[in-house]
Every structure is written in C-alpha cells, then in structure tokens.
Amino acid sequence: MLRMSRCERRGQTVASLVLAIVTTAAAAAGDGTGRELAVMLLTVPATPYHCFPVGSEVRVTLAQCCLQVPVSGYQAFIQYDPNILTFVSGEYVLPEPFGLPLMAILADNGLISAAAGINPFLGQQPTQQDADLVVLTFQVAASGATQLYFPSHTPPTSFSSAQGRIIPELVPTDVLHAHSGCPTQLGDLNCDGWVDFDDINPFVLALADPAGYWTAFPDCNWYNGDCNCDEVVDFDDINPFVACIAGACQCPE
Ligand SMILES: [Ca+2]
Ligand SMILES: [Ca+2]
Q1: Looking at the domain assignment, is residue 230 inside a domain?
Q2: Lesser CB count within 10 Å: N end or C end of the chain?
Q3: How far is the CA of 50 from the centre of ligand 2 (A)?
Q4: Which ligand is nearest to the CA of 189?
Q5: 203 alpha carbon – ligand 2 mean position (Å)
Q6: What CA–CA distance (Å, rounded) separates 130 from 150?
Q7: Is 25 part of a structural domain of the chain?
Q8: Are 166 and 36 contacting, i.e. CB atoms less than 8 angstroms apart?
Q9: Distance from the alpha carbon of residue 193 to the mean position of ligand 2, in angstroms
Q10: Which of 123, 153, 179 is at the close of a domain?
C-alpha cells in the first residue's frame, strides 16, 4: 500500500494501474523472474474536462514512482503532437533526486529527450524516492485532442540500477483537449454554481446571441453552454444541456 501513496494523487487511473502492477510483480516474485517494479509517468494539470484554451500554456510533469530498487539515473523519450502543442522549454527538477543533468532538454520533430543521474559531488546516492524529474512547458497552438506519451525508442526510456537497466511501466498523460475556449462548469450559464432551471434562459441567450450573452453575463463563461464540448454553442448542445439539467453532464473523452 505504501507504493500507492504518490500515485493516488495522480488519479484513479494510475492508482489502479499501479495496483495491477503490484499484483503482477508479486506473482512474478514467486516464479523467480525477478521483475522490478517501477513507473514513469506524465501528468498535466487537472482542469475541468482536461480542456486547455488555444494560446494558453500547459505544463507537463515527468515523474517517477514506485521504484522497487534504487536507481542512479534515467533517460526518457517523450512524444507530443507539434500540430497542437508548441514546445517552449524543458527544465530539470533539481537538485533531488538527480543533480546531474546529462543533456539539454530539446524538442526535435515532436520528440523530447531528457536524461539525468545522481551527482556524487553532491553526495547523492541511488534512490527509490518518488519524485518529479522534469517540467515541460508547451503553448497550445491549435484545437484538437492529444496525449503526451513515451514512444517506442532505441535506446528505450529506462532507469539505471545497480542490477542493470530497468524498463519501467510508462504512463502517458490523460487526453488533453485543446479548444478555442473551455467550459468551467458545463450547463451553468448564469455562473451561480448550480445547473438548474435558472440556466435555461441564459442558455437560450447563449445559443441565439453570443454577444448578447457576454454582455448580460460578463463574469460567466459562454463555453459553459457547449455541452457537447465541440467548441461552439449551437443546436447540437440542446440535448446535452437537457442532460446537464438532469444531472448527466459530461464532455465526451
Ligand atoms: Ca446556474
Ligand atoms: Ca457544442
């Protein structure tokens, strides 16, 4: 259970994945395969509906968790879609646990490489601690749905341990929706924090007269009426809006 603590805060998907790996590793220990448990994962900030407006910045964190044995460094290869995201910068998280970056973090045709190790001059030792390793900053360039992930690569994304290289379980980001605008609470067209009958007239206004809606509700969000999450408020949102009123409000993945 200890190994789940960090992954739990990164979402249920990761937690259940790690639980599955623990089960696998426990089974493997019995058959003498000696499989080592380790996870490398990519995360994006939690935003409503995983939506990021075009022009905004997105910070993606590369992290490690659940290491079963100490490691002295890692190399990672991360793929992104340059049609949707523009790479801005990559920064190592220093000095712990790896105080010695081994390369500059650069992007080449949608592929980012990073590698770092312990720094003996800082007295660093091989480590099993959960840690953030790299923060990548992107600007959202265009609409679309995308993920960051670890592609097949030679050499592979891996940790270095005293026993030899460990190929970790690799967890991509959630699907990231890049939109011209993002809902903050679907169906709440008067921004009172509730989705109810009081939202019907504002929804009709948002549908018929977007400029009039912004004038009437300058502190609310027209995109809250985009109940099917396709970046516009139009007739296709009527049925999803009715579903919102009934309590079944969700953007499609
Ligand atoms: Ca409301
Ligand atoms: Ca819509």
Answers
A1: yes
A2: N
A3: 16
A4: 1
A5: 12
A6: 19
A7: no
A8: yes
A9: 20
A10: 179
Task: Tell me which ligand sits closest to the C-alpha of residue 238.
Answer: 2
In this structure, which amino acid lies at residue 75? Q
Beta-carbon neighbours within 5 Å of ion ligand 2? 226, 228, 230, 237
Reference 62, options 175, 172, 151, 160; nearest CA is 172
Single pTM value for the model? 0.81
Ligand nearest to the CA of 190: 1
Helix, strand and coil content of the chain, in percent to the nearest 5, comes to 25, 30, 45
Q: What is the CATH number of the domain that holds 134?
A: 2.60.40.680
Each residue's pLDDT tens digit, 165-200: 999 999 999 999 999 999 999 999 999 999 999 999
Q: List pLDDT tens digits, range 202-244.
A: 999 999 999 999 999 999 999 999 999 988 999 999 999 999 9
| Residue 79 CA to ligand 2 centre (angstroms) | 30
Distance 14 CA to ligand 2 centre (A): 30
196 CA distance to ligand 1 middle (Å): 6
The separation between CA 191 and the C-alpha centre of its own chain, rounded to angstroms, equals 27
- Tell which residue, 182, 176, 178, has the closest CA to residue 54: 178
Residue among 162, 142, 33 at smallest CA distance from 83: 142
